[in-house]
Design a protein that fits this description.
The structure is a single chain. With 211 residues, the protein is of the alpha/beta class. It has one domain: P-loop containing nucleotide triphosphate hydrolases (Rossmann fold, 3-Layer(aba) Sandwich), CATH 3.40.50.300. Helix content is 46%, strand content 16%. It has a 7-stranded parallel β-sheet with strand order 3-2-4-1-5-6-7, sandwiched between helices. α1 packs across α2. 41% of the residues are buried. The structure holds adenosine-5'-diphosphate and magnesium ion. Magnesium ion binds next to α1.
Length: 211
């Protein structure tokens, strides 16, 4: 079972959007996938409740679910949607259980400042230092050709983690959140542009092997 942790200390950076989309992509690839909602706000759980039954299925787990129970079901992947403010021992524990960490970063000065502290703590954590957890940064709500993107890129260059892709600012993500869907559930005519932007990240995720 491979575990992908989606985290950033900042609320509203795009954690739930990334976590739900990663599960949507994996489910579409006929993988057995669980969505572990570690956020007491339960946004990921509510998204899953809105998901139409006809779409590829994703198993939901509440914050207090055990890893043993997930393993027993025979999941191929677990994606953890974490709460804002993850730090200290809770961050280290979450990293110890993860094979990969995906960090969404939005192009606002508040997001960048909070992210700098968070990435510092991530870089210091033993599972990351020892190479057990691969870390990817994702620029959220940003068009790669804009000045905001360039500023965000410059800021993220200071860290040793790769900036894997940019996801544009589009209502498509807002509609997907409302409807329990991911862009991977949409017909080609509506999803193609976003599939393209996701490809570097899905490729990066596909290379993550379980520890
Ligand atoms: N690329 C995007 N384009 C437009 N809206 C987005 C995008 N990513 C996220 N959002 C919206 O931004 C809000 C915050 O994102 P969310 O994933 O809930 O953040 P977090 O889980 O980190 O608090 C949500 O309403 C979500 O639909
Ligand atoms: Mg969230």
């Amino acid at each position: 079972m491979r575990t992908i942790l989606v985290a950033n200390a900042k609320g509203g950076s795009g954690k739930t959007t990334l976590a739900t989309h990663i599960t949507g992509w994996l489910a579409g690839k006929r993988q057995r996938v669980g969505l572990h909602d570690a956020d007491p706000q339960r946004s990921a759980t509510q998204w899953l409740q809105r998901r139409p039954a006809l779409f590829p299925s994703i198993a939901g787990f509440p914050a207090d679910a055990s890893r043993k129970e997930m393993k027993e079901i025979g999941l191929d992947w677990v994606v953890v949607d974490s709460a804002a403010g993850l730090r200290g021992d809770a961050l280290r524990d979450a990293l110890r259980r993860a094979d990969a960490l995906v960090v969404p970063v939005a192009p606002s000065i508040f997001d960048m400042t909070a992210t700098a502290d968070f990435l510092g703590a991530v870089a210091d954590a033993k599972p990351v230092r020892e190479g057990g957890v691969a870390v990817a940064l994702v620029a959220m709500r940003v068009d790669a050709r804009t000045r905001a993107a360039a500023e965000l890129d410059r800021f993220l260059e200071a860290f040793s983690f790769p900036l894997v892709t940019h996801l544009r600012d589009t209502q498509v993500y807002v509609y997907c959140a409302r409807d329990g869907l991911s862009v991977f559930d949409l017909p080609r005519s509506r999803g193609e542009q976003d599939w393209e932007q996701w490809r570097p990240l899905t490729r990066w995720l596909a290379q993550r092997n379980p520890r």
